[in-house]
Design brief:
This protein folds into two domains: 193 residues, Glycogen Phosphorylase B (Rossmann fold, 3-Layer(aba) Sandwich), CATH 3.40.50.2000; 160 residues, Rossmann fold (3-Layer(aba) Sandwich), CATH 3.40.50.2000. It is built from 16 helices and 13 strands. It has a seven-stranded parallel β-sheet with strand order 3-2-1-4-5-6-7, with helices on both faces. It has a six-stranded parallel β-sheet with strand order 10-9-8-11-12-13, sandwiched between helices. The two termini are 15 Å apart. The protein binds uridine-5'-diphosphate (UDP). Uridine-5'-diphosphate (UDP) binds next to helix 1, helix 11 and helix 12. It catalyses: UDP-N-acetyl-alpha-D-glucosamine = UDP-N-acetyl-alpha-D-mannosamine.
């Protein structure tokens, strides 16, 4: 048996890894252990509950106001100790968080091979998204297996001289999570119930779903986003549904600028099934989130991305996503165009999904199982 240690700490990692954990658990020959760092405590726990996951190890490393230095140092030491105790044969990390970066590094220090889920995303700008662009670049030379969601991501890895035989184009596991959750929400109305009061309040209005949390948008950009939301919600035909990320840099600005303006449902972060339901009800999605950029096109929802660059150009190329930056006037005018110009709307509202077919996790688990079987066959040279 080979022991696979799957490490994650934030909401998006949990959403994108729960399908992988399930698929790994279904593989004979693998023992799967899960370790959460709880880099985002509350948001992570919401996903664990829905996915029916109970982690084997919980480092619970979140502290309010923690600097990136302190978080990174604590993660590296904590994850190294977990690896020493667990002695995994392979470590799996996802994406571009501090947890993924330190998990890969701690494994490298112990010569344990790393599998990177959602490998090869690049914006080309180390400050956008910050610090994620550098986090994911650090994982690349370490990883033994690179699971690229798209060919574009695979090409980025090839440009960095990653060995082609280690790159596998799988689709993004967020589409697996979305399909799985959508099916459950359809079968069980109790799931997604957190949205019921919002549905009642916004009846008859056209819903704009908003999320924002990127660090590089904190400050002036966040204030511009808030003023744009206020102007959009002032239209009679529109209601804004806005699950507010708990980061104080987001909450304080929204409190100050949006006050108690009507037709803005500023609500607590939604559990994943309720958020998936909100995506289904929305006419337009306005976001700076990575995962939401991938989910909205899969549901045929135009998504306006409040960033200057994206590491997910596939949605822009497919015409379902548009980069609109963070200027107040630009956001308002792009939203109004989609609301008022049917042709512009239907050009974007195509249920086209460049990010995957919902079977990424099975491909990943199969490749890991094959790799470990080969490693066992050729042991002890592998490690
Ligand atoms: N999401 C959620 N509840 C919310 C807002 C977002 O479950 O209230 C989900 C969303 O569906 C997506 C993920 O969280 O899969 C994105 O997380 P986030 O925007 O925090 O991170 P990013 O994807 O930008 O790294």
């Amino acid at each position: 048996m080979s022991k696979i240690l799957v490490i994650f700490g934030t909401r998006p990692e949990a959403i994108k890894l729960f399908p992988v954990i399930r698929a790994l658990q279904a593989q004979p020959g693998l023992v799967v252990r899960t370790c959460v760092t709880a880099q985002h405590r509350g948001l992570l726990d919401q996903v664990l509950a829905i996915a029916g996951l109970s982690p084997d190890i919980d480092l619970d490393l979140m502290e309010p106001g923690q600097t990136l230095d302190r978080l990174t140092a604590r993660l590296l030491v904590g994850l190294g100790e977990v690896m020493d105790a667990e002695q995994p044969d392979m470590v799996v990390v996802q994406g571009d968080t501090a947890t993924a970066m330190t998990g890969a590094l701690a494994a490298y220090y112990r010569k344990v091979p790393v599998a990177h889920v959602e490998a090869g995303l690049r914006s080309g700008d180390i400050h956008h998204p910050w610090p994620e662009e550098v986090n994911r670049r650090i994982v690349a030379p370490i990883a033994a297996l690179h699971f690229a969601p798209t060919q574009t991501a695979a090409d980025a890895l090839l440009r960095e001289n990653i060995a082609p035989s280690t790159i596998h184009v799988t689709g993004n596991t967020v589409i697996d999570a979305l399909h799985w959750t959508n099916a459950r929400v359809a079968a069980d109305p109790a799931l997604g119930a957190a949205l019921d009061p919002v549905v009642a309040d916004t009846a008859g209005k056209r819903i704009i779903l908003v999320t924002t949390h990127r660090r590089e948008n904190f400050g002036d950009a966040m204030a511009g986003i808030a003023r744009a939301i206020a102007r959009i919600a002032a239209r009679d035909d529109v209601a804004v549904v806005f699950p507010v990320h708990p980061n104080p840099n987001v909450v304080a600005v929204m409190d100050r600028i949006l006050g108690d303006q009507p037709d803005i449902a500023r609500i607590a972060p939604l559990d994943y099934p309720s958020f998936v339901r909100a995506l289904g009800l929305a006419e337009i999605v306005l976001t700076d989130s990575g995962g939401v950029q991938e989910e909205a096109p899969a549901l045929g929802k135009p998504v306006l991305v409040m960033r200057e660059t994206t590491e997910r150009p596939e949605g822009v190329e497919a015409g379902t996503a548009k980069l609109v930056g963070t200027s107040e006037d630009r956001i308002v005018s792009e939203i109004f165009t989609l609301l008022d110009d049917k042709a512009a709307y239907s050009a974007m509202a195509r249920a086209h999904n460049p990010f995957g077919d919902g079977h990424a996790a099975a491909r990943i688990a199969q490749t890991i199982a094959q790799t470990m079987a080969q490693a066992v066959a050729s042991a002890p040279a592998y490690r």
